[in-house]
Amino acid sequence: MSLSPDDIEAAYLPRARLGGYKAGPTAALLHRVSWDYRQVVHQHRAVAEEVRQLRVRVAELEQELQEAQQAVSKRRHPDELTRVVLAAAQRTAREVREAAKQEAETTLRKARKRAADEGRQLAKSRERALKELAALEATRSCLHEQMRSGLESLKSALVEEPRPADRGEASRPLSPSNR
């Protein structure tokens, strides 16, 4: 089932504890979007190949038409039936060429529009992910600074704590009875 832009925009991703989205569901959504984008690219290639084949066919028909025109011009007295057949062949070749051209242009327009829509959706998803990453980085930096500050406070408190000699106790060598 392919995703529509509305499906991507309406996706409700579960939140992570520290803010942002959980990696698993987010990766799954991105995987689905990537898959659909690959399908669009594949369809685009298929349409391009079909256009190429139609152009080859039109060229073949034009060649046949040219050969028919040459055959008619070689005859000294072309009859009415030959002219009618030639006119019909020309008209048919023109109609086939125009129909193929219109169909190819329509298909290419649709494929480009869908690719652009999906590209915009991917850009939006990427932008949201980058904002989320920046918020997480800011949180990490803040926590790092708080931890550093706390450790420095603890260190200075330990350095400033009075020693037994500073409290008036005589420092004496440890004897076996003091141990």
Structure description:
The chain is an all-alpha fold and 179 residues long. It has a domain of 102 residues. 77% of the residues lie in helices and 0% in strands. It is built from 3 helices and no strands. Helix 2 packs antiparallel against helix 3.
Question: Can I get a quick summary?
Answer:
With 179 residues, this protein is mostly helical. The protein has a domain at 20-121.
Through-space gap between termini: 80 Å
Query: Total strand count, please?
Result: 0
Approximate shape: rod-shaped
Helix amount, in percent?
over 70%
Strand content: under 5%
Unreliable stretches covering 5 or more consecutive residues = none
Q: What value does the average pLDDT take?
A: 84
Query: Biggest β-sheet, characterized?
Result: none
Radius of gyration: 39 Å
Order of helices and strands: HHH
Count of discrete alpha- or pi-helical segments spanning 4 or more residues: 3
**Structural class of the helices, strands and pairings?**
mainly alpha
